[in-house]
Amino acid sequence: MAAITTPSNTAPALTFPRPIFATVAPHPFLQAHLAATKSSKTPLRANNRTAQEFRRIGVNTGSLTHCNGSAVVRLGNTSAVCGVRAEILKEEDVQGTADFAPSTGSKAQEHVEGEREEFESLRLLVPNVELSTGSTPQHIPGNAPSSFAQTLITRVRSLLLSTSLVRLSDLRILYTPPSNPDDPDAEPEPHLKGYWVLYMDIFYISIDGNAFDAAWIAILAALKNSVIPHAFWEEELETILCSDDPSEAHPLALRGLPVPSTFAVFEGKRDWNESGEDDEVDWVLSDPDAFEESVCKESVCVVVDCSGGKKGTKDGILNKLEKSGGGVVDREAIKGLVKRAVDRWEEVEKATNVKP
Amino acid sequence: MAANTDRRRINAPSGGTSAPVFAKTVLESGYLQSLRPNRTRGPNELRKTFLQTGIVPSASGSAYLEVPTASSSQSTLIPPTSSLKIAASIQGPKPLPRSAPFSPTLVLTTTVKFAPFATRHRRGYIRDSAERDLGVHLETALRGVIIGERWPKSGVEVVITILEGDEDAWWGDSGAEGGAGSGFGLLNVLAGCITVASAAIMDAGIDCVDMVAGGVAAVTGDGQKVLDPCPAEHQDLVAACAVGYLASRDEITEIWLKGDVGADPDELIEGATHAALGSVSVLREVLLENMEAKMNITKEGSKRKLEDVEMTG
């Protein structure tokens, strides 16, 4: 407690109710919580979690009628709705498919790199977010998307592309003619007739910190829940038609399950009389809420995927590491954070596997 | 599409995309008609409503309304009808910015936005005329209820997000496809907006003269009056009316009437107020629940204070 006493404190101690203390002096408020030296108890944050504790995830899928897949995700007080909608991009509307067309024949070998380029140049994945739904007082409708919204969606899109989550083979609409026009004896080759374009729209109902994790888990759950109708080229009508039979439709086969975990670093005020002694004054908080985000400058986002190997959480891949805003987290600390992210992965995996 | 040039969002392919066309609807002529939903409730029976307040903790008041559909078929990927899902959030009342001109009463701003996935046709992110229209109608409905004189120089934002909206007509009927349909679905959406906004205002604790509730009634081709019509279930609606109704004062703050009513519109308006009474009863229950929850929180809050972390400053 010594850490926060100010020189003006010689007067009789002034006490405030909690909410007023939090608004007037957010930084000392959180520090007082984290540095509390109550015996035998781990210090809790203002939101009653320990520094390492994430919020519980609630996932509810398939509730929207007009979507191929949808999910509502709740992380404490942050909740987001994601709807995935598939529409058809016709081959004649695309410039330069000739570059990609030859690879359609050899489905066996998948060129992840080439796929990524095709996704990016054709814009087959269209994620978007809307924050101005009254979800927070900062985002009032009527304004253009804020820089926060733009950063958020760019991060989501780059993660979508860099993890190659969606397979191109799921989105291609191929047509195999009954006979090969060049050589009647040879196997007919499939032609590319169009693509499915996935629109992923995320609407926040409420934001209380960690919007990125919520957005990504919502997309993940919605994609897992998505069903793409069987599409085929109808030669007589010269158009792409779909079958409305659910048994013919296919789910999206996702590559792995990358899960982000966001951490905020809280830098406590050091007591400058003690020359940097052993006092723990920096905390890395898992899954920060809006109040904590407002007092923390440094943040780390770790994306891990443990679904590749057979050994569960012992065998994971680090997909992405983002760190900005400060220099508290060093190499050792990052290692610890990756471990925490792996633990989180397990929780998210369980939550997203729940069938509606 | 205006969204094509929006550089602040992720854009769709420039070639444009089209919604999937299902083979059976094109190749088999009778198939589409077999999917047509039918009204199974009586003409005076309302659909069930789910209403909840307090879904957005950072807002001063919020509510969520859902009117589920009766049937969901498992044999086809084509959804038969949509249901109504609306979220409302109130920001404020808070002081107006210094640059704003003086206002002796509360400045009410209403925004209604459809989510892109709310309707059968994908919507854009820029607000269109239907959404602005709904916003104005909602503002009229609410303005008469709020006692604005108690908040001079302040403003309040009512933000409505429609996650799923009723359709104008059953989508299989030609003509309704292009979105140029009769617009009866919008009336249902407006009634839902009024009810959910009223619940959110109640949650925010803004002083009102009464609870306003929305209701819709319609007249079918054979002159029958139906309450709470789901446009998809009726092929032959000729007129419909949505009202914002104050039940205990027996006043109407908003009327939106569409179609050919004939000589006597009063009966239709009367019907709409009856439908609104159904919403009022839901609102009352939610208000009670809300009050009870708030009482419990204050009790627990005082308990929590005792075991609080000690702090000085």
Write structural notes for this entry:
The complex is a heterodimer of chains A (about 350) and B (about 325). In chain A, β1 (about 55-60) and β2 (about 70-75) form a beta hairpin. The radius of gyration of chain A is 25 Å and the shape is elongated. Residues about 1-10 and about 100-110 of chain A have low confidence and may be disordered. Chain A has helices spanning about 20-25, 25-35, 110-120, 145-160, 170, 210-225, 290-295, 330-350; strands at about 55-60, 70-75, 80-90, 125-130, 170-175, 190-205, 225-230, 230-235, 240, 250, 260-265, 280-285, 300-305, 315-325. Chain A has about 350 residues and is of the alpha+beta class. Chain A contains eight helices and 14 strands. Chain A has two domains: about 40-55 and about 260-350, GHMP Kinase, N-terminal domain (Ribosomal Protein S5, domain 2), CATH 3.30.230; about 55-250, GHMP Kinase, N-terminal domain (Ribosomal Protein S5, domain 2, 2-Layer Sandwich), CATH 3.30.230. In chain B, strands 1-2-3-5-4 form a five-stranded mixed sheet. Chain B has one domain: GHMP Kinase, N-terminal domain (Ribosomal Protein S5, domain 2, 2-Layer Sandwich). In chain B, α3 packs across α4 (about 185-205) and α4 packs parallel to α5. The chains are: A alpha+beta (about 350), B alpha+beta (about 325). Chains A and B meet through α1, α2, β3, β4 and α4 of A and α1, β3 and β5 of B.
Summary keywords:
heterodimer, A: 356 residues, Ribosomal Protein S5, domain 2, 2 domains, 6-stranded mixed beta sheet, 8 helices, 14 strands, disordered N terminus, B: 313 residues, alpha+beta, 5-stranded mixed beta sheet, 4-stranded antiparallel beta sheet, 5 helices
CATH architecture of chain B: 2-Layer Sandwich
The helix content of chain B, as a percent range, equals: 25-40%
H-E order of chain B: HHEEEEHEHEEEEH
Mean pLDDT of chain A: 82
Mean pLDDT of chain B, to the nearest integer, reads 83
Structural class by secondary-structure content of chain A: alpha+beta
Looking at the structure, the CATH topology of the largest domain in chain A is Ribosomal Protein S5, domain 2
Instruction: Please write the CATH class name of chain B.
Output: Alpha Beta
Please give the share of residues in helix of chain A: 25-40%
Strand content of chain B: 15-25%
- How many angstroms separate the termini of chain A? 48 Å
Main location (chain B): cytoplasm
Organism (chain B): Didymosphaeria variabile
Protein name (chain B): 3'-5'-exoribonuclease
InterPro entries (chain B): ExoRNase_PH_dom1, ExoRNase_PH_dom2_sf, PNPase/RNase_PH_dom_sf, Ribosomal_Su5_D2-typ_SF, RNase_PH
